[in-house]
Amino acid sequence: MSDLKAAPGKNAGTYRLPDSDYVGEGWTPVEPGTDPVLYGHAHISPQGQFEVRSYQTFTLTYTVGRFGLDDTGAIRVVFRAMGDTGKMQATEPAADNFVSAKASNGATLSVNYAGRGMSARPRWKSLTVNVSGGYMREGDTITVIFGDTRHGSKGLKLQTMVETDFEFKVLADVCAVGHFVPIPDTPTIDIVRVPQQSGAQFCRVCADPVSASIWVLKRRISGVTRPHLRKDNFASSPLWRLTACRKPSTIHWVSDQSVSRI
Fold first, then answer.
1. Domain boundaries, the chain
2. What is the CATH number of domain 36-192?
3. Mean pLDDT over residues 199-227, rounded?
4. pTM for the whole thing?
């Protein structure tokens, strides 16, 4: 090339790679292939219906596709931003929402959770499992346990909202280039409301508009009536979720395992 700029030194005048401004780069539209079998598949167990705010354990199994999974490649499980599922973590096995991962071929895996910044909207929440110290062949598996209870964790705490087809959407960076391709047939579960309990589950509250303090006129739990409890006696208890009101109103009694709308 006659217009090459010579660099000083012993290699001056020899051919060098053209400037990237003239070559261009391939970003997200570029994929190694379009056949879903190339990227693998995933399923989750158990499936079915699970109560809001309950602790659960789910095992997601990703099976490597025809491309394999390269050293430093990864899979990523992404979730919609709007939700209050427990914050996943991989550093404290005895704490809530612990997540673990294991490769069937013994490859070293690292697990990282990000609330934002790693995946595109609307699925900002992401759990990334990176492969290092070896690659994976077609048919090898990565097993991810959400809410792993084997070391004392209570499990993964589900969100407050009822949702049909809550998605564990799996993406795979099989060629270790930072480009995550969605895996077809996204695993899902259903998050359902807590069944209505029998017996007295209501209390009567009113607020003093001057002091803004809330008085409970009656509270009945397990057949025991406890009248005239002040706000400061129960505000820190997980049994109650109350807001100030200017006239007497009826609210649902709510436990830490259920949801109430005032």
1. 36-192, 202-252
2. 2.60.40.680
3. 41
4. 0.68
Token pair of 1 as six digits: 């090339």
Distances (CA, A) of 39 to 42, 62, 67, 72, 227: 10, 10, 6, 16, 62
Give tens-digit pLDDT for 78-128. Answer: 999 988 999 999 999 999 999 999 999 999 999 999 999 888 888 999 999
State how far the Cα of 194 lies from the Cα of 27, in Å rounded to an integer: 45
Pairing, β 202-207 against β 214-218: antiparallel
Question: How many residues comprise the chain?
Answer: 262
Structure tokens at 165: 């087809």
Cα 136 from Cα 130, distance rounded (Å)? 12
Cβ proximity of 64 and 140 under 8 Å: yes
For the chain, the straight-line distance linking the first and the last C-alpha, in angstroms and rounded, comes to 75
Distance CA 54, CA 127 (A): 20
DSSP assignment string, the chain: -TTPPPPSSTTTTS--PPPHHHH----TT--S---GGGT-EEEEES-SEEETT-EE-EEEEEEP-TT-B-TT-EEEEEE-SS--PPPPBSS-TTSTTBEEEEETT--EEEEEEESSSSS-TT--EEEEEEEESS-B-TT-EEEEEET--TTS---EEPPSS-EEEEE-EEEEETTSSS-PEEPSS--EEEEEPPPPPSS--EEEEEE-TTT--EEEEE-EETTEE---EEHHHHTTSTT------SS-EEEE---TTS----
Amino acid at 67: F
CA 254 to CA 64: how far, in whole Å?
Answer: 44
